[in-house]
Design brief:
The structure holds three protein chains of three kinds. By secondary structure, chain A is mostly helical. Helices cover 48% and strands 2% of the residues of chain A. Among the domains of chain B are: 8-79; 151-284, 3-layer Sandwich (Rieske Iron-sulfur Protein). In chain B, a hairpin with a 5-residue loop joins strand 11 (274-276) and strand 12. In chain B, helix 1 (8-48) runs antiparallel to helix 2 (53-79). Chain B starts with 7 loop residues before the first helix and ends in a 22-residue tail after the last strand. By secondary structure, chain C is mainly alpha-helical. Chain C has a domain at 35-307: Cytochrome Bc1 Complex, Chain C, CATH 1.20.810.10. Chain C contains 18 helices and seven strands. In chain C, strand 5 and strand 6 (327-329) form a beta hairpin. In chain C, helix 14 runs antiparallel to helix 16 (408-437). The chains are: A mainly alpha, B alpha+beta, C mainly alpha. The interface between B and C is large, with 87 and 124 residues. Strand 1 (82-87) of chain B pairs antiparallel with strand 7 of chain C, so a sheet runs across the interface.
Chain lengths: 296, 306, 479
């Protein structure tokens, strides 16, 4: 049964709900006024790439890091190099802060080998270094690529709307349960099980790998927050039907039906059908009668 | 029978031990049935107090499983295996019986008809039956209309604006490279056969010579219905410029008239010619370049209406 | 233990007497008490299918009390938060209500779905048992054909069933089914329009599927199962050779009490396993898939397992679409219509193919063979299994590709090669193994009744009645 079924709450529950709502409001207000302070530490807060790019300190640090970690494939000036063997990569002009942030945050970059599939690894840079690299790449072609979107407040976004948008725009590749699947010869759409909210947002805006992009014209900030809310909601959502075996769908269902279902029944059948081999089965005959079962 | 040579005391001892085993089995069966009763009652309680899917399933399984186990112990350990032998006969009736039946049948038939007319009458009866069968099939025809133009045309026509799934009309400037969006005629949102996919490509990627219809600034529009089995071609591999149908993995090259790159589809996606109107909104310049959707035998590859 | 001959006074006995007073049951019923059921565990496979069907009927009636076969849109206001406020079809809404609001509804739905999967699986394995042991041979060709018809009906029942909830997964499956219908030569579009009441997605689709699913197909299933069982009773069971088993007898456990109790036990266990699956394993969580919209789709998208072979054929089949003389042969015509037709056609014709070319034997058979006794049949069977298994795998090629980290097209290409190469190879290997194990001439040694010739009847006992009432039919302890 769904835990959502709280449409007609008991008066006491309602009182509690009102209390909870008041506390939530208070927390939200504090968060709102404390937002400035939070932006300074900036763990998951938006970072304005354009501003960063104008900060010479960041750009300088970024240039150093770029030379060490990125230039081998993307070229000295980030203009790209043809892919030959393990080296080479696309130009980074105009990819935008969202793309750099996504690639670095999810450890997809730097790669060991240009021939590898883009995949998630632990992040290799500190937040500060990541910002420096964003600044450096951004100043190559300022303002052309997508900015890091502001998704603060996604927790309050409407997952219902998110589900609708997710089904229309995302499920075709990532699947209804965001498990990911092969979407071409080289590419597997990512499972969104461990993705951070900000990563969802930067991916949507920048379109990493073969993923298409979604700009604000087609998917507003509010829509983006809703999608984020649904993906996070989906992850936490319990399976009312029982064990969902990783939400891997019909294929796993078929396997379970045959292996567990028919397998258990085959075992029962075997035990039931082979009664002749049962050592404890009564086969001895009544000493005073020829036939223990014959009644006549 | 078999063990009659054994000493009587040994047989009596065997018999006694077997009775003990049977008593033990009876106790196990009894426990099984008690478990079933308890589980069934617990199921009742769970249900009455609001229900819980997992608990219900397990209790139902325990109740039935215990009955099954009890019966199994009963039949195997208490009753024990028995063997009966039945005689079997060839399925075919003995020739005599067959002959008798045939004779009786023909006699009966002969009484009802004379030989000469019988064949004639039988044929007429057969004809009547067939005609009647045909006549009775006719009502099935009422189940659906005859396909007319639906298979060849859609609601797209010249001048109608493109709108997204929520009915918002689309400006040319709204779509960036590597972006993809599902569109409908602004006056027929959600019309299944009109569904189309609008793709933004990067400068120079489109090959206009390969395209049958008009595009706008790197934007190109195709039918979203796969020409293979009709699933929506919803999966866009932006970096490769490929639309892929998740049902059977037909892959279409967006840059070259959505021609089939791989997979089982037999023809490319029909293109929707697009342009812009005075206010900068995207509009269709006509219907698709070909009939949309999976192919059928009397499909023509001409543009609708020609 | 009872050994009394005096009339006892339990209500059951009273009822039995009351019935016999009116229906003269004891006379014919007497022999059924000791009807022989050959005991081998694999003979119970068919019973699992039968019991799954009973579970399907029972749970299905419950579901039908809540399901609404209606396309009309309603605004969802049930307890499942993520869909609240969305416009969904009344059908989808009723399925959600059944899952979240009806007490034990989700359990019933899940048991029903699991039972459907197990039902078809049991039929298939039962069929394989019948195939490899030669149980389809004369005089049992009819029951082979009926069994296959049951398999077909079961598949159609499953398809119409999982198409009902009107979620995104079910709707897309239906779309593919409609497209296959369209590919029928020339009348395809007409068939499609007649089937759905108009152009896809149609206005009457769900109502018609529902009628098929709850009335027409179950009626067919009941009719054919009845015929299957009546013919089985008439022809008596096949049995493994050995012990006292002969071509002209049936050796086994008596119907009462042994077989009745064994079957009841198996029935209880079948319900138990299906209840366990239904309670503990989530199946078809359609609230996650969202309502069906003709322009939406997701990946990976697979049908239920028993449709996987068809899905796989369509994924593997090369893009062959020909246009000649102004006629287009649609790409899905061959894999969607012709190949399945040929496969089932061959399976239906198998008893006659077997007697003409494989066993070259038209006699009646009541003793089973081992797979090794007829290497050619075994080889062909193994080749068939391999082929169907491969195309079933191909139906989930995208899932396999991501699990193996293999290129999707590479995998598809390999599967194409394998479906051509592996079945003959596997068949040949099976043939060699079977042949090397040696038959001991079992198939020929098995003294078949010469059913074809008239003189064979002379060897048969006089009548059925004497046989069953003869002392041999009495219970006798195994010693």
């Amino acid at each position: 049964m769904s835990t959502d079924a709280l449409r007609h709450p008991h008066p006491l529950v309602r009182l509690l709900l009102v209390g909870a709502a008041l506390i939530t409001a208070a927390v939200a207000l504090t968060a709102l006024f404390g937002a400035d302070a939070r932006a300074q530490d900036g763990e998951n807060s938006p970072e304005d790439g354009a501003e960063l790019a104008e900060d010479p300190e960041h750009v300088q640090r970024g240039a150093e890091l770029f030379g060490t970690h990125c230039a081998l494939c993307h070229g000295e000036e980030g203009r790209g190099l043809p892919i030959e063997g393990p080296r080479g990569g696309p130009s980074l002009e105009g990819v935008g802060p969202a793309s750099v942030d996504f690639m670095l945050r999810t450890g997809r970059m730097p790669m060991d080998n240009a021939q590898d599939r883009l995949r998630r690894h632990p992040q290799q840079f500190s937040d500060e270094d990541r910002r420096a690299l964003i600044a450096y790449v951004e100043q190559l072609a300022p303002g052309e690529g997508p900015e890091i979107p502001d998704i603060d407040g996604w927790e309050d976004a409407d997952p219902t709307r998110g589900l609708e948008l997710f089904t229309t725009n995302c499920a075709a590749c990532h699947g209804p349960t965001a498990q990911g699947v092969a979407v071409g010869q080289q590419d597997i759409s990512s499972s969104l099980d461990v993705t951070e909210p900000i990563e969802i947002a930067t991916a949507v805006r920048s379109g990493p790998g073969v993923m298409p992009r979604f700009t604000e014209e087609t998917l507003s900030e509010e829509d983006l927050q809703a999608v984020t809310a649904w993906v996070m909601d989906l992850r936490e959502r319990e399976a009312p039907g029982g064990w969902s075996f990783g939400r891997s769908g019909t294929v796993a269902e078929g396997l379970i039906a045959v292996v567990v279902g028919l397998g258990l029944l085959a075992l029962v059948m075997y035990l039931l059908g082979e009664s002749a081999r049962d050592e404890d089965a009564p086969t001895a005959e009544r000493p005073d009668a020829g036939d223990p079962h014959g009644q006549q | 029978m078999g063990s009659s040579e054994a000493p009587a005391s040994r047989r009596a001892e065997e018999w006694r031990r077997q009775r003990e085993r049977q008593d033990r089995a009876a106790r196990i069966a009894a426990i099984c049935f008690v478990v079933a009763i308890v589980a069934a009652l617990a199921l009742f309680v769970v249900y009455v107090t609001g229900g819980q899917t997992q608990l219900e399933g397990v209790l139902l399984a325990v109740a039935f499983g215990a009955v099954g186990a009890g019966l199994a112990v009963w039949v195997r350990r208490i009753i024990g295996p028995r063997e009966v032998v039945e005689e079997r006969y060839p399925m075919r009736s003995p020739q005599e019986t067959r002959d008798e039946f045939e004779a009786a049948y023909h006699d009966a038939l002969g009484e009802a008809t004379t030989t000469g007319r019988r064949r004639f009458l039988l044929r007429l009866l057969g004809g009547a039956g067939a005609s009647l069968g045909l006549a009775l099939l006719v009502p099935f025809r009422s189940l659906g209309p005859t396909p007319q133009d639906e298979m060849f045309t859609t609601t797209w026509r010249e001048g109608v604006r493109l709108a997204d799934t929520e009915g918002r009309e689309i400006q040319a400037a709204d779509i960036s490279p590597d972006e993809v969006i599902t569109v409908f005629p602004a006056d027929a949102i959600d019309d299944p056969s009109a569904q189309a996919i609008l793709v933004g490509t990067r400068e120079g990627q489109l090959e206009p010579d390969a395209l049958p219809g008009a595009t706008v600034e790197g934007m190109v529009c195709y039918s979203k219905i796969c020409t293979h089995a009709g699933c929506p071609v919803g999966l866009y591999r932006a970096a490769a410029g490929e639309l892929l149908c998740p049902c059977h993995q037909s892959t279409f090259d967006v840059h070259r008239a959505a021609a089939v790159v791989s997979g089982p589809a037999g023809r490319g996606l029909p293109q929707l010619p697009i342009g812009t109107d005075d206010e900068g909104y995207l509009i269709a310049l006509g219907d698709f370049s070909e009939p949309v959707g999976p192919s059928f035998w009397n499909l023509t590859h001409d543009a609708p209406g020609t | 233990m009872s050994s009394s001959q005096k009339a006892r006074q339990s209500p059951v006995d009273d009822l039995a007497r009351w019935l016999d007073d009116r229906l003269r049951l004891a006379e014919g019923g007497r022999k059924y008490l000791h009807k022989a059921f050959p005991a081998h565990w694999s003979f119970l496979l068919g019973e699992i299918a039968l019991f799954s069907l009973i579970v399907l009927f029972a749970t299905g009636v419950f579901l039908a009390l809540f399901y609404v076969p209606d396309h009309r849109l309603v605004v969802y206001d049930g307890p499942y938060v993520p869909l609240q406020g969305q416009e969904i079809s009344a059908a989808y809404e009723s399925t959600l209500r059944l899952s979240f609001e009806v007490r034990a509804g989700l359990l019933m739905r899940q048991i029903h779905h699991w039972a459907a999967l197990v039902f078809v699986a049991a039929i298939v394995v039962h069929m394989l048992r019948v195939f490899f042991t030669g149980a389809f041979r004369r005089p049992r060709e009819l029951n082979w054909v009926i069994g296959l018809a049951l398999l077909l009906l079961a598949i159609v029942a499953g398809f119409t069933g999982y198409s009902l909830p009107d979620d995104l997964l079910s709707g897309t499956g239906l779309r593919i089914g409609y497209s296959v219908l369209l590919s029928v030569p020339f009348v395809g579009p007409l068939l499609g329009f007649i089937g759905l009441g108009g152009e896809y997605p149609g206005t009457d689709t769900l109502g018609r599927l529902y009628l098929m699913h709850v009335l027409i197909i179950p009626a067919g299933l009941v009719g054919l199962v009845t015929a299957h069982l009546v013919i089985l009773m008439r022809q008596k069971h096949t049995q493994k050779p050995g012990g006292r088993a002969r071509q002209h007898n049936v050796v086994g456990e008596p119907l009462f009490p042994n077989q009745v109790m064994t079957s009841l036990s198996l029935f209880a266990f079948t319900v138990a396993v299906l209840a366990l699956l239904g309670g503990l394993f989530e199946i078809n969580p359609l609230w996650l898939y969202g309502p069906y919209e003709p322009f939406e789709v997701f990946a990976p998208m697979q049908p239920d397992w028993y449709m996987g072979w068809l899905e796989g054929l369509m994924r593997l089949w090369p893009a062959w679409e020909w246009t000649m003389f102004g006629v287009t042969i649609p790409a899905i015509f061959l894999p969607g219509v012709v190949v399945p037709g040929v496969l089932f056609g061959l399976a239906f014709a198998w008893p006659w193919i077997d007697r003409r070319w494989i066993a070259r034997d038209e006699r009646e058979h009541h003793l089973l063979v081992r797979p090794r006794d007829n290497p050619l049949r075994t080889g062909i069977g193994v080749a068939g299994i391999t082929f169907v298994a491969l195309i079933t795998l191909a139906g989930s090629n995208d899932v396999i590709a991501s699990d193996l980290g293999m290129g999707l097209q590479t995998l598809t290409w390999w599967l194409r090669v394998l479906t051509v190469v592996l079945p003959p190879l596997a068949g040949w290997v099976a043939y060699r193994i079977a042949a090397s194990l040696g038959t001991g001439g079992a198939e020929d040694a098995d003294p078949a009744s010469p059913g074809g010739d008239d003189e064979g009847d002379a060897a048969a006992p006089e009548s059925l009645e004497t046989g069953s009432d003869s002392p041999a039919g009495e219970g006798a302890a195994r010693s």
